[in-house]
């Protein structure tokens, strides 16, 4: 089941994010800031996937995936963005921050359903397209694959995008450890 992310699920989202992407990927402070950047016109662009094995949905339900999305006009453009190659203006571009699915739940379409839910929300907010930095080293390059299948177009490759020297974070990449050299694929989906 796909539903909006609300604060009672923050701890599960943090735990799943750190398990899948590496320790230090999310914490309560960072998730609270991200959460605020995804709400615009009282529309929440963040979503969670709850296990189909859960009979009753409550705060104890098991989160098997989540999608964090920044609303257009509410996120910082940094050196890893190439707005001169985007098909829409910066003010009309949302940012797909993170799509995460638990290992045992991958390949079931959860990531795609989370993305579609976020696209529907940001379109209601007024966005015309969305950009993301996809993790090229994801298992079987699945991040780039599912985003391409959803209509994503490659804009630019950014080697070592998440290296700790760029943002002084405590992030520990699940592949590289504390010296991440994974490549980010800057990709855009235009919302026809």
Automatic annotation (TrEMBL):
Identify the domain of life.
Bacteria
Name all N-acetyltransferase domain ranges: 100-150
Pfam families registered for this protein in UniProt: Acetyltransf_1
InterPro entries from the xrefs? Answer: Acyl_CoA_acyltransferase, GNAT_dom
Spell out the protein name for this chain: GNAT family N-acetyltransferase
